[in-house]
Amino acid sequence: MRPIDLSKLRLIYEIARAENMTRAADKLNLTQSALSKALITLEDQIGTKLFDRISTGMRLTPQGERLCLFAENILQQASSFERVFYEKEDEAEGEIKIITTPFVGAVWLTPILPSFLEKYPKIKIKVLLRSDNIDISEGDVAICLFRPHQPELIQEHLFTTYIRLFASPLYLKKFGKPEKPEDLDNHRLITYRGNYYSSYGSTNWVLNVGREKFGYPRESYFEIDSLHGMFNSCLYGIGITELPDYSAVLSSEFIDIFPDIIGPETPMYYVFSKRRKNSKKIRLLLKYLKSKGK
After folding, report:
1. Cα–Cα distance, 195 to 186 (Å, whole number)
2. Does one domain contain both 55 and 141?
């Protein structure tokens, strides 16, 4: 049996996450050639190929998948231990690293943090925005959907948003207001990646509401790969879009075109490791965010 150099586990993990040597090298602060040499050396040492080099990047082999799962588990445990080890649990000081989605971070989280930071001046906040595949081991807290089958996590419900359909006064002045969902067939619709579904909320409801009898969706008029982009596209009158009903959205100049019709719901949770259950700063932030609603 050939020993595995455990110091190389992060290399495997980052290459697998990025599926690309250049991006992984950037994350690890290495040159691409240095990372390639390190991978080749590791594969030679253990006598096993870990990645297939394909046209689109890097793909784990079956043995590579096994090692990557092991690496992820070890790195998560190490990261969690470091935070617990260095933290003074009874003091409200130090850094809190929050991982969430770009829209939640920009539209909901950032505007409500200043008063928390003013109240607790010894706490510093770092917000990491991730569009997909939130990795809780990257931070102290995640604000995201419920994560099933993970008993090692504490998951506190923060709020639930509901999808609604919005248009700007500029658009409605030019194209008129739909009176019922079926009228959307004759309107310009803004979507996220067209007829696409994201685990962070419906991103195709506007294409399907009122189309149940047809069995297929409407066509998108304008696609953009960002909820913030959908917000701005709607603001400038490009079309009708669906957005979660955060207070920042409801307080904008948008018109809720079907106020009596509520779309899919998205419950959001405050998620952190059970090892951090006694952390004063994490508990203080949880209490504060719960008090703010959506």
Report:
1. 17
2. no
